[in-house]
What does this fold into?
Amino acid sequence: MHVPDGFLDAPTSIATGAVAAVAVGVALQRARRELDDRTAPLAGLVAAFVFAAQMVNFPVGAGTSGHLMGGALAAVLVGPWTAVLCVSVVLAVQALVMADGGLTALGTNIVLIGVVTAGVGWAVFVVLRRVLPQRLSMIPISAAVAALLSVPAAAAVFTGLFAIGGQAPVDLADVLTAMLGWHVLIGIGEAAVTGLVVSAVVSTRPDLVYGARRLVAARTAALREEVAA
It folds into this structure.
């Protein structure tokens, strides 16, 4: 999903860069509401995990490989705004140190891999959290589905950007088919990793999982009422 330099024209890259800058600026303000002294260290661990996980590619067929994007995973663990910051830091380091994605495409990659995956992933997770049984065991399942859907969503947004400012001589229908087709498969891997990681954290420290805070608070309140009774 890393978009290289020159794949989109200058106006499109500038526009996505502006969107990314605004998103990161808002995230810097909103993340303060999501983190506290207990959960702030988890944000650093999430960023480090996403960075390491993006270095590992898994085959999806026909010589194509994919890697974890991490937006939905980060959103469930530390909150959607903090997730945008975590993934943005990872992408900036990759662009500056490893030339992965390119500097002129950094804004585009932050929008796609950070903003879209975290935003879509969190939105899907919230909906599932409301409709599924109110149990902690449902948190990893909701997170996995959110991760699965967030990946093709990012691919669809990229296709829209390519339709506006794509520089490669490729038919738009072919781009859409290839991006959605392969990224659905990549999304399955993303869902598996996300579900396993969230399940591990929920089983040991559910109080640190941002997406589980309401359930943990409700369970704690119920226990207090039982004790008081």
About this structure: Residues 10-228 form a domain with the Arp2/3 complex 21 kDa subunit ARPC3 fold (CATH 1.10.1760.20). Residues 165 and 172 are 11 Å apart (CA to CA). The longest strand covers residues 58-61.
